[in-house]
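Sample pair:
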Amino acid sequence: MKHRIVLTVCIALFALGLIGSAVVLLMPKKSTVVIRRDSEVLYTFNLSTAPDQTLVIPYGDSSNTVEIRDGAVRVKEAECPDKTCVNMGWLRSSAMPIVCLPNHLIIEFADADRGVDAISE
């Protein structure tokens, strides 16, 4: 009986450790977001200080509507056939950027090693 209690406590601690590690790894450590098209920096925002706003970013005959709200960013609407960028939701991790291939748009957390190319106010 005593071994079962010890084993249960060990398993619970292990599970909590895994959950805690996942939460820490998925949280963005950076707050600067860069919006690029064809390797050109269009906008750079510090999400912790950026005001809530909506940007319409044109590309050819189509556009993407990018929303910045409550310290997060997403593609709210897109005039592209697959809408993958819209379905990606809010950018939460530097592991996976928001990408719209038809409109050549990438939204990602800034790489601290490369620095910031431009600032948008």
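The chain is about 25% helix and 35% strand.
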